[in-house]
Amino acid sequence: RDYTDTWISMGKESESAQRISLLKNYQINKELVSLANKDVMVLHCLPAYRGKEITEEIFEQFAGNIFDQAENRLHTQKAIMDWMTD
């Protein structure tokens, strides 16, 4: 599996240029995915900044997995909140 997160966290936008420069070689893109097993699954914790940590092409190719993961995470978080209030 390939898994990525945003390179620039909310509130850290002033570090944008520096972080992009440092992390550009770690982008999930067609070339990287081509090196993986044919059954690779690409995930992203969202929000995604297409063209930075992941290319538009790869994001769209794995969008179903990415959005399913986000939905599952939402339900898990709701279940934890419900469990904590019992």
What report would you give on this structure?
This protein is mostly helical. The chain has a two-stranded parallel ribbon. The radius of gyration is 15 Å and the shape is flat. It is 49% helix and 7% strand.
Q: What characteristics describe this protein?
A:
mainly alpha; flat; 2 strands; 86 residues
* Strand neighbour order, sheet with most strands: 1-2
Shape: flat
For the secondary structure, the number of strands is: 2
Overall average pLDDT: 90
Largest sheet: 2 strands, parallel
Strand content: 5-15%
In helices, the fraction of residues equals 40-55%
* Rg, Cα atoms, Å: 15 Å
Alpha-carbon distance between the two ends: 36 Å
The computed structural class is mainly alpha
Q: What are the low-pLDDT stretches, counting only 5+ consecutive residues below 50?
A: none
Number of helices: 4
The H-and-E topology, N to C, reads as EHHEHH
